Amino acid sequence: MAELPSGTVTFFFTDIEGSTRLLQAIGGRWQGVVEDHNRILRGAIRAAGGLDLRTEGDAFFAVFRSAPAAVTAAAEAQRALASHPWPPDATVRVRMGMHTGEGTIGGDDYVGLDVHRAARIAATGHGGQVLLSSTTAQLVRHGLGDGLALRDLGPHRLKDLARPERIFQLDVHGLPADFPPIRSLETPTNLPAQRTSFVGRDTEVARVKELLKGPGLLTLTGPGGSGKTRLALQAAEALLDDYRDGVFLIELAPISDPLLIPASIADAMSIRAEGRRSVLDTLREQLRDREALLVLDNFEHVIEGAIVVSSLLEAAPKLRILVTSREPLHVAGEQELPVPPLELPDENHFDWMAWARSEAVALFADRAAAVDPTFEVTHANVTAIADLARRLDGLPLAIELAASRVKLLSSQEILERLGRRLDLLTGGPIDLPARQRTLREAIAWSYELLDEGERTWFRRLSVFAGGWTLESAEAVASSAGQGGDVVGILGSLVDKSLARRMRGEAGTRFGMLETIREFGREQLDAAGETEAVRERHTGYFLELAERAEPHLRRVEQKEWLDRLEVEHDNLRLALRWAIDTDRGSEGLRMIAALWRFWHLHGHLDEGRRWADDVLALPSASDRDVHRARGVSALGSLAYWQEDFPVTRKCYEESLDIARELGDSTLEAEGLYNMAYPPAYEQDFDSAIETIKEARALFEELGIERGLADTEWLLAIVARLDGDRPRARALAEESLERHRRIGDRFGTSDALHVLGRIALEQGDLETAGRCYLEALEYDEVVGNQTGIGIVLDNLAAKASAEGRHLDAVRLAGASERIKVAAGGHAPPEFIDFRDPRDAAREALGQAAVKAAWDEGQEMTLEQAVEYARREI
Prior knowledge:
The chain is of the alpha/beta class and 871 residues long. It is 56% helix and 10% strand. The protein has seven domains: 7-172, Alpha-Beta Plaits (2-Layer Sandwich); 202-338, 3-Layer(aba) Sandwich (Rossmann fold), CATH 3.40.50.300; 352-446, no CATH class; 450-528, Winged helix-like DNA-binding domain superfamily/Winged helix DNA-binding domain (Arc Repressor Mutant, subunit A, Orthogonal Bundle), CATH 1.10.10.10; 556-702, Tetratricopeptide repeat domain (Serine Threonine Protein Phosphatase 5, Tetratricopeptide repeat, Alpha Horseshoe), CATH 1.25.40; 703-781, Tetratricopeptide repeat domain (Serine Threonine Protein Phosphatase 5, Tetratricopeptide repeat); 783-870, no CATH class.
């Protein structure tokens, strides 16, 4: 072997992604594939002046005297690998990683941390991906060859390494550059970034961490404003490394129905539930083996839902749940930790520096400095601040509200004003804890410092659940004679800590802490404005839902689906108001507008309950257009849950009403829907007759989407009836129509069907093209039902091509998605036969079981990536 270079060198590691699976798939041909791979890697390394030290199976370890040489070797190797004529069922994808450091030689090999760092970087990548450490990236940044570029993937924690490593990706022109997130040690979480420092509570944080090592449930109790949420978030952040499957915050304040707790948890963890399986059952299954921490915030107003917590802990022994509530949940195994007030200065012993370090005074000082950078605790003002903290019983929220006034008042003036206020209003409701009475008055004091216009806006904005936008604030909180500068008013409320600004992908939103929102709702009731403001709130979100509905099938559907998701809590609140006040017309219009959103975003179970409740209202019983559309929405939700008796009953009622009203458009839609029940009962003659009747009406009315949909359904029926040429012609016409009118949902459905027909005709190229496009559509929206159908189609394609192990893996992944979704339409007889049957004949039971298990272990993201490679 050549002499090992020393000094500063670049270490280079590679291996074939999925080599074990590839070996199982191609058997005896593996040796030839590996030899071609080795020849390509060795040639690229040596041509760039590198030294290939050793190979282990399909892995290479090489060293270069310069970082640019290593990058050149990696780029040339990836180009050669991509252009090599691999067998169709044995495409080789190699991941590569490199790091530049000290070439310390021990014996006949390299030793030291830099070698391990390079190996760890390589191990985080995906097939076809080249990763560089920040050190290597800096050395090559200004000397990259033509067609090469660096992409910053950010800092990542790597196994066994103490500090995070900033990792860069080498993009090679003409080769794939978009890969899944690299496999670092980052813990999945949705914990928000804290915009203020955490003051004190070190003992409590340590206690929370210790108690969570015991039984699965810990409840932090205390009055509103005592800092339960902030303590929970701080402890959760400190525990990120302890829960490999994630730490998730579930904010329960926006909901009022305990039945929505499972949906809130599922939303926070990006777990979708579709079909007839309940969201809770889906969560029990999904969390069974996960090591995760859930933080359920503000549980007190949905305390009847405590059984959900018990059910999840019973199903998932590795799960831990941290709850914040004004009262314990009173379930078996619960540990309770009362959150004490902040540490107060010792009033029996004056030591101004010790008083300044106490938690309550330190919090006041920190928040005061945030609004007035010149503020500091001194010998002169520490007594007033300490007295103020005591008057507020050390409650963090009350202290923060008081500190926000230092822009206007000195510490002594704040104390005097607060003192007079509390003296005047002592003896509040006796059924409230003393500290809560104090906090209530602290908020009231801050509220009364607002001018009249700000007070009006504050109490009206409290109607929103989950926050608001500028647009919705103007629509709901303003009225004739009560307008104003909404931006200025919101800025003032944020400055006074009565509202907060929330940034996210959906743009700027505003919200309130729940304790403050509760106070605002009390003021709204006292002003006699609740009914009028709730009506405007319901009207605004009904209008938003109806404005969104036409877009939920179009090319812009993701934008509108995401917007509805952000406003879901407000939509729920509007529906609840419509139900509680027996406003059937508004409720029916809302479920008719929202059912497609509930379907595509995995809220089927919840949507079904809303639809049932609305349709049961006395005021929803009139046989009008709203009833027809509402009952049709329930039928569609039932269809996607495979509840076909309810589907038929609802569609029949909707069609009957349409005919009674003489509404031709509604009748055409009703006829189209009524074709589904006989089609799925395999009564094709009745289905075709109904479809043709619907089509004639759509044609008469000039409704292109209806014509496209009926062609799609006729294509399915023709395919099932064995007339593939006619089925293909209809599917192609449906696809062309859907594309022309910009119907993204219909386009995806047409692609599914055209791909199935093309596959059965042996046109594998068309089938693959259809599946890829459909997969892209469904992935963008997050439509698990659609993704499952694509995987089924791809499994059939792989089986037809003799790639039985790929077929079984895809089918296994699809089955996992369906189980998580709780079932899907269409029914099983429309799908292809189980690919395991053909695979067993060719490969035997053991190989089939192993491939099926591999598919079952794939996450949704991994399944989609695998599917793309197999198209």
